[in-house]
Structure formats: C-alpha cells, structure tokens
Amino acid sequence: MNWRYFSTMKPRYEPQTFEEKWVGEWEAAGIYQAADKPDPARKRFVMEMYPYPSGDLHMGHVENYSIADAMARYWRMRGFEVMHPMGYDAFGLPAENAAIKRNIHPREWTDRNVEFMRSSFRRLGFSYDWNRELITCDPEYYRWNQWIFLKMRERGLAYRKTSPVNWCPVDKTVLAKEQLSTGVCWRCGSEPEIRELTQWFLKITDYSDRLLDEMEGLRWPESILNQQRHWIGRSRGAEVVFQVKPKNTEETIEVPVFTTRPDTLWGATFFVLAPEHPIAEQIAAGTEIEESFRSFVDEVKKQTQVERESGEGTRKGFALPAVAINPVNGEEMPVWSADYVLMGYGTGAIMAVPAHDQRDFEFARQHGLPVTVVIQPEGETLVGEDITEAYSGPGVMVNSGPFDGTVVFPETQDGVDRVIDWLTEEGRGKPSINYRQRDWLVSRQRYWGTPIPVIHCDQCGEVPVPYEDLPVRLPDEVDYSVEGEEAASPLANNPDFVNADCPQCGRAAKRETDTLDTFFDSSWYFLRYCDPANDQEAFAPEKVASWCPVDQYVGGTEHAVMHLIYARFFVKVFQDMGLLDFPEPFLSLFNQGSVSLGGAEMSSSKGNAIDAAEVIERYGADSARTFILFCSPPAADYDFPADGMDEIGRVAHSWLSRVWRVLSEVSQESAAASLEVVVNRTVKVVTADMEESGFNTAIARLMELVNEFSKLDGPVPRSAAETFLKLLAPIAPFITEELWRGYGNETSIHSEAWPSYDETLIQQESVTMVVQVNGKVRERFQVAPTITTAEMEALALQSERVKAHLDGSPKKIITVPPRLVNLVV
RNA sequence: GCGGGCGUAGCCGAAUUGGUAUAGGCGCCGGAUUUAGGAUCCGGUGGGGAAACCCAAUGGAGGUUCGAGUCCUCUCGCCCGCACCA
User: Fold this and answer.
1) Stated in angstroms, how far is A776 CA from B61 C1'?
2) Which of A291, A468, A594, A727 is the most buried (most CB within 10 A)?
3) pLDDT by residue (tens digit) across A158-183?
4) Who among residues 708-767 of A has its Cβ near strand B, under 7 Å?
C-alpha cells in the first residue's frame, strides 16, 4: 500500500514556493544556535572568512559559504555542537570610495550592504547563528580594537617611527609591506611612492620565530605554509664587521655585514653599500665625487620596483673613495655603492664574493672587478677569470687560510658553522639570524576605520586615551576634500575630533588622526564570535577557551601572508597576555578554488558574473548550492561556460527536479534486501566523501542512488528515501526539509542524526572479479567479497576465454582478493 | 630565477592510494511518451567489426613492477605565489 504524502502536491519542483518558509522556521526553532559552553569533546567551530559587505553576491561568493555550510551541517548531524557564525568586515576603503562617489555617508552605504548580504545569506539557507553576528564598524566592536591597541602599546608592541614607507597615491594612504603584491598596491594596482613618514607599527617581528616554528602542526595547504615561511624569511648566518677607510680621512668606520656564507669570506673582492646607506653619503661628503654620487643615488631612488625588474641584467654601481678591510685576512678591497644592495635587508651593506654569489658575479664582470674562487666543487677546478657563473654548491675551501681543505655543504650548514664558531672566538664576527619580515604598518590616512586612541600633547608627548574613555568614536561629519602636502587623514579636517584635552596634564592637545588598517579588525574577530555582546571586555576568556581554536576555517588564498599571519600574531600576543592558552587560531584551513566566468575573474562591477539572486529566482537556493558544490572539487578552480546560468539549470535544477519527482511519493513497505545494500553502500561512501570535503563526489554518489530509485517498480520505500534525504541535507537544505516534512516528520531534518551503515550488509554485495592474462583483462566474474584465493584461482583457470590466452599453465599467479587474478605466462 | 600545483573523453571531472581507467554530470546520437516542448523516461556515446572478439589511450619519452593515471628519471605545456633577501 502506498501513500501519496502531498495532498496538494505540486507535480513540478518549484523551490520558490517553499524555500523562504523554512528559513523562518529554522530560526524560530533556534536549531543553529550555539551554546556558550559546548561539550569540549564534541564541539566544532566552523567559519569562513567574513566578507566585505558589498552590494552584490555572485556564484564565486556562494562557493565559499556553501562549502563551510555543508561542513557545519554535516558535523551537526554527526552529533557535534557546531558554532557557525557570520560577520562583516565593514570598515575600509571601498565603503569610503563608494560613499565619496555617491555623496552619501560610508555608514549608510555599509548598512545597506550589510542588510543586503544578511538577507542573501538567509535566503541561501546558510546555517549561521545570527545571535553572534558582528559588524566591525560598530563602536561596540572597534572599541576593543582600541583596547587591544593600547594593551599592545603597553607591551611595547605598538610604536610610532619615522621611516620610508609605501604610499599609494590613488588610495591616498600608506600600505603595509604585505599589501604590495608584485610591487603594486593590492587594491588598486597603482605604484606606490616612497615617502618618509611617521607611522604606527606593530612589532610582529618579535614573533617571527614563533610564527615560523608553531605553524608545524597546522592542517593547512602546504602552499600557504610555504608562502608564510618565505614571507618571514628566516636565514641563519653571521654578522661580520669590516673596517671601512674613507680616502680623505684617517678615521675608520666599522660597518657590519650580514652573510649566510661566512665560509666564502676569503673570496670577498669588494664591498658594497646600499645607495641609501648613511655611510655611503658620509664617504662621499666633501669629496669631488659628492655631486655625481648624489645624482647616482637619485637615479636609483627614482626607479620603482617594477622598473628595477625590467632593467634586469644591468647592475648600476658607483665606486666610492674608500677601502674596506677584510677581517679574516686584512686585505683591502674597493668600496662600491650599487642598486642591487637594499637598505631594507640585513645591514644594508655586503661583502661581495663574486665567485660564489651570482649577483656579485654579474656586478664584478660588468665593472671589471676580480673574482677569487674559494670553494672548489668535487672533481673540478674553477678559475676565477674563466667561470661564467657563480658557484654556490658544496665543495672544499681553498685560499682560505686556516680553513683550507674544509668541506662545506651550504644546504646543511656543514662546515659553515665551523667558520662562524671561529669568527666568534676571534672576535671578528658572531652568529646572526635575519628575517625578511618587517613590522606591520597599521596606520592609515583614511576616515572609515578605527581611530587610533592616542592624544598628542606638546607637554606630555604621546598619551594613550584612558581605557574608561573608550571608544574613541568616529565623528559623523567628514570632509575628505582638503589635502595638504603631508599625507593626512580626513579626520585631521575635523576640529571637533582633533582638539582634545591631554588626559595627563589637561592642556589642549590633538588627537591622532590616522585610523587602523582593517586587517586589525579581522585579526581577532573569531574570538569575538565566542562572546559577541560582551561590553566589559573584548571577550570572556572562558568562552573563548570553550570554543577556540577554530576547528575549520574556509577561505581563499589571497590572504596567505596578510590576514592569516596577522591573526596568528594576535593570538600569540593574547596568549602572552594570559587571555587564552592556545598558540594558533585556525587548526584546519580549507582554500576553495576560484570561480570564473569565460576565463575571467567573476566581477559584478565588470559585468562578468553570475548573480546569486538571479540564480535563486530562476532555480532556487538549493540549485545554486548544489551546482557550485558539484561542478568541480571544492579546492579546484572552476570556470563557468558562457551560458553558465543555463548550465546551473541543466545540471542542478534538473537533478533536484528528478529528486522531487522520484521522492514525492514513498511507500511504507520496507526496502528489498538489494536496495538496502545499495543504500548502505551509499551511506558509507558519502560519509567518507563528506569527511574529506569531497562534495562533488558525494553528490555523484547520491545521483547514482537516485538512478537506482528510479529503476524500482513502485515508489521508493520511506526508510530509503529518508536516508537519502539526510545525506543530501547538508548540501540542499530546503528540498530535503520540504520532502522530509511532507512524509509527516514533525521536526527538522537538520536536527536528525547522520545515517549509519551496516558493513555486513555491504559485504553481502557481489563484486566483480577480473582475470588478467599478462596484465590484460580477459574475463570477469561476479563473486562474493569473501571469496578465497584458491577459489579465485580455480575460477580463473576454468574460464574458456582465459584458456584461449593461456599456452599451458601459467608461470605465476597473482591474486588480490576479491578483485583480481593475474596470470603470468 | 626560486617555491607550490596541475595535465585523464568534445567539456566539468571519478579512480579504495600500485590492482576492472574513464564513476557522476554536461553535450551529442537514437528510441519512447506528449497537442507541443529547450519537459520527462529509457538506451547509446574511444576506434574497428554483423557478432564473438580485437586494438588503442591518462601531455610526451624512458624506467621499476606480474601489474603504473598513481612510483622514479628526463621532457613539453599551463596556472598560482615570491621577486636582487646577501
């Protein structure tokens, strides 16, 4: 006997008629709300990188959230307490630029977009705990930015210094080193100018070693870890002091150099100072080359990074009137200034060993400087005049005084360390470690950000705003127009904001007018999710302790050395402050692939996007989600065909329609044994797929099961149908709920337990055994999975088809129960 | 140049990690049903053959192995990240 469960059943799948209804019901039932104190053994903190609130949402965005939501829903069904929050990275340049362009306030623009994003996310059925939503431009959020900033300042981790910094002329603000991609501004692509400015920095370099060493246990894509390792760029070597003698004076100047190859010290044939090096200027000062040197420096400075790259091969140099003394053998060598030596790395000065460093080699050949070989590779004798490139591999030290005959392996430091020890004993040098990473420049000359809570007083200097006065609120009035010679924030135009009393002496003083980089906001928002309404502290340590660290983080690769390093840094600082007791914020990181359309990056503003709202309107939210999870492995890139919108209809909507047709009507009869086996096997493989985030293959398995269902004579047995719906629920939450409730279930499918499977049932299924002769398949049998080796061999040898390829008895028989027999003749 | 990754059907992609290559889907071809459909259902879809059956193929060339998409060597092509880091 069959039941038709839908008295008013619509024959067609029309998701628009029921999807929205469930959003409200789920929220009313509170099924996605996370407790403050979960069972620590059964908790999962799942989150995606929170979005910048923009006014549109396309299928590229949908992928990120669909992946995380499928994970969150799966784990919830697996019995975990799941926290899956959402928030908005609501400060920042785009809001300000858009506001200027449209002549509205950034807050208005932002609020509108937040409202749009929130309703889009609800419509897509993402299982967020909306009670934890946060918006970073909310004073109740950014006051804790200010609190953290002041705490860091107390610990000496936030400080101001004057230095050459990158200033983007289009965005009209300074940039952190991390925000230059290939030498240009990461947002707008313009070439930055170098300006000498006083800026706020965070001392992230104090944490370089921990950032490097503590990443080891993270379940992150190797490429991200590698990018971070390279970004931090720790290199071990020695610092060696050279005596530099300008020709026009008797005095000598001590100039330290950093080298990773102190074993090549005896091969140093010249000495190079960066053009910006103050000692280079000192040497030139008052000599006849002073003018020409200055124009050389100007010429080098004029070059941007991009130009320096294009001018590859020519190494500009300037011979300075000085000699340097090699501390290992007392030999004099000429002193040069050259563009390839950077002031920003090491000490800004190098010993040049052209025989063993390619850059030094090129410079030496171009400027006629000597090349002395001091490392001979095995089985070869290099001659300085003849070689055509530097040799940097392992070998035996020669012409190296006490170290002649020492074998060195630069890769492993073998031999090199002996030289460092010797230098240290002799007082000529010491071990040294250098980092590529620089301190994080966090001040920005923009309005729409967190005001830096500092007051500048003529009497007292730099005075922190007292904690009880936080937050320092952004004023509503803003005048972006005025721009002086000095890079200044629009806040500087607002006298009501700027003028303040010094908290220490009470006299008239001026507020800091720069705001914080928005990466400051995102460095700790995951902690705030644990305690979003706390007005006494940034977060209650016990709440963070019960949910953090984040178990699964989902996002793109673009933040490899920005957000993902900054957040790690903050957590380590909080650990030192005793606010939490774990070293790393994100245990597992999943990078979704990029989504493009017709080979070009999806972008609504460029008119090259598949709009999520349009997909929902035409096919429903489930189709959007199912398509994006099915079209390719979630970590792989996917390029939509030109008719991408139709493709979603052909693939996802038509399959869900089929699901609808096949499962609208179910039978109360129990499933036949053969169907039970198929269902159990499906549970097994889909579970394995979900564990590995293999959503595309999970959907493929579910498609196979639907194909099986449709081969049945009558309606699908209810138990089988419900198992299927549970497996599909994390991916397509609406259709599964609609059908599930249609069967008469009174509570949500999303609160159901994930189906289990019976392995013994799966073992009853016959499998195909193949018989190969010399590796070629000649016969197949359906056999029980429990078949023995002897049975397999017997079966194989009795086959006529096999005998036809056999000339006598096989030399060797390989069996792999229960799948394969290979006969070797 | 350095680091990471990829190359399987016309297209997106599977392949228990060394064991039936091409699951699932799109597209295409054929059939059924329908007043009609760009709907639905069924079947086919590397090549040859009526069929039994035979042969080829995972960018290319070698190698290890009873057996290689998977491991090794070389090579070609593409994508991403970093750019003189001493």
Assistant:
1) 23
2) A727
3) 999 998 888 888 888 898 888 887 77
4) 710-711, 767
Size of chain A in residues: 825
CATH code for A235-434? 3.90.740.10
Per residue in A74-96, pLDDT (tens digit) is 999 999 999 999 999 999 988 88
Determine the nucleotide nearest to A362 by Cα–C1' distance.
Answer: B84
Q: Long-range contact list for A425-430, CB < 8 A, 24+ apart?
A: A428/A240, A428/A241, A428/A327, A428/A328, A429/A238, A429/A239, A429/A240, A429/A241, A429/A262, A429/A327, A430/A238, A430/A239
Work out if A812's Cβ lies within 7 angstroms of strand B. Answer: yes
Q: What is the DSSP letter of A749?
A: G
Chain A residues 580 to 639 whose Cβ lies within 7 Å of strand B are: 631-633, 636-639
Give me the interface pTM, i.e. the ipTM: 0.95
Q: What is the CATH number of domain A766-824?
A: 3.10.20.590
User: How far, in Å, is the CA of A411 from the C1' of nucleotide B68?
Assistant: 34
The answer to whether the bond into A818 is cis (omega within 30° of 0) is yes
Nearest CA to A260 out of A435, A44, A460 is that of A435
What are the strands of the beta sheet with A552-555, ordered from one edge?
Answer: A81-83, A43-48, A552-555, A589-591
- Residues A94, A171: contact at Cβ < 8 Å? no
Q: Is the CB of A34 under 7 A from strand B?
A: no
- Rounded Cα distance, A625 and A689, in Å: 17
In whole angstroms, B53 C1' to A818 CA is 26
> Would the Cβ of A366 be found within 7 angstroms of any atom in strand B?
no
* Closest to A479 in 3D by CA, of A455, A503, A513: A513
Residues facing A226 on adjacent strands: none
Q: Which residues 641-670 of chain A have a CB under 7 Å from nucleic chain B? A: 641, 646-647, 650-651, 654-655, 657-658, 661
In angstroms, how far is B83 C1' from A306 CA?
10
Give the residue from A648, A750, A753, A659 showing the smallest Cα distance to A704. Answer: A659
Mean predicted confidence (pLDDT) in A672-687: 94
Domain ranges of chain A: 144-203+439-519, 235-434, 766-824
Q: Give me the residues paired with residue A511 across strands.
A: A455
Q: How much of chain A is helix, strand and coil, in % rounded to 5?
A: 40, 20, 40
Q: How far is the CA of A552 from the C1' of B12 (A)?
A: 27
CB-proximal positions of chain B, under 7 Å: 3-5, 11-16, 19-21, 23-27, 38-42, 53-55, 66-68, 79-86
Q: Which nucleotide is nearest to A661 (CA to C1')?
A: B40
Task: Examine the pLDDT at A203 and tell me if it is beyond 70.
Answer: yes
* Structure-token match 């709920």, residue found: A737
- CA-CA distance, A485 to A262, in Å (whole number)? 46
Find the mean pLDDT for residues A142-157.
Answer: 98
Question: What is the sign, positive or negative, of the torsion defined by CA atoms of A176, A182, A183, A187?
Answer: negative
Residue with tokens 């499998």: A767
Question: What's the confidence (pLDDT) of residue A306?
Answer: 57
Check whether residue A348 has its CB closer than 7 Å to nucleic acid strand B. yes
- Listing DSSP states for A252-310 in one string gives -EEEEEEES-GGGGGG--EEEE-TT-HHHHHHHTTSTTHHHHHHHHHHHHHS-HHHHHH
